[in-house]
Design a protein that fits this description.
It is built from 5 helices and 6 strands. It is an alpha+beta fold and about 120 residues long.
Amino acid sequence: MKYLALIHSDESAWAALPDDERAAIYARYRAFADDAEATGKLVEGYELKPTATATTVRVVDGRTVVSDGPFAELREQIAGYFILECESFEEALELAARIPGASHGAVEVRPGYVDDEELAA
């Protein structure tokens, strides 16, 4: 089963960190990713650019509306994600707790949707 681990972080707090602290956190992310990949648990993962680079798309009354930025201003923004391949939700939670963002923000874990027809095939 695939699980999405969404990393939530405070962009302003991240930007305020000294370069050496950011480098140390990046090293922890690389170590996590290397280990998860070596054990076959990492499907993919990416850091996202700041919300200032985001664009939101909506369709309202059949018309496409494009606006700059995220949908809402939040204290924590989505900073990146990992897609994990795990045997159970508990295993996904254990891996998520090892993601560095869990110690300076939050990691939201969601199972991927599986259609019942796909399971039967």
